[in-house]
Write a structure and sequence with these properties.
The protein is built from 8 helices and 8 strands. It has helices spanning about 5-15, 25-35, 35-50, 65-85, 95-105, 110-120, 165-175, 210, and strands at about 55, 60-65, 145, 155-160, 180-185, 195-200, 200-205, 215-219. A 6-stranded antiparallel sheet has the order 3-8-4-5-6-7. A two-stranded antiparallel ribbon has the order 1-2. The longest helix has 23 residues, at about 65-85. The radius of gyration is 19 Å and the shape is globular.
Amino acid sequence: MFSFVEENYLKAIYHLSDHGNESVSTNALAEEMKTTAASVSDMIGKLSKKRVVDYQKYRGVNVSSKGKEVALQVIRKHRLWEVFLVDKLNFHWDEVHDIAEQLEHIKSPLLISKLDEFLDFPKHDPHGDPIPDENGVFATVKKIPLTELAPDTLSQVVTVNDSGTAFLKYLDKVGISIGTKIQIDDINEFDGSLDITINKQKSLTISQTAAQNILVANS
């Protein structure tokens, strides 16, 4: 059994390590968790004893195979709850992250299994992120930032890098959401902003920063 703090650490290490592929420095983890390096070192010691992380001095920490399983189950619960909140309780996609952060620590596997079934086994959360199944397996889609899309190529929004409230509200304001079709019409040399057409109807200009946080796949 893991505490919600331990689960949050494992989830953070999993994300920072690029899904367990790279080691994470204690300083990077401290910044992510908004705490001190000393507190991170203490937690790494506790997690090492439970064999859910591998730590090497001067190289950093990574999730073990067991730790990856725990992290993926927390992520699975978080994303299923986000779907529930948006689809069944009519929350907006910019409102659900903090609530799901609380709900993701519910321990009942049966409840989560029933929730998955109730939602008709969704593959992606409201932000386009893949939902792991009960075995930690999830579908992968080749995606690139909108800034890397070739002009005149039709693409579809599959997820966003920034799930913060301000950015999601901005996307709502300009009419971009998961599934929106986007084509780049021009790239402005002055500031790198993009002139785009969405859903073959509406033309607008978005900043390079916004475009970098919109991930698309070929439509």
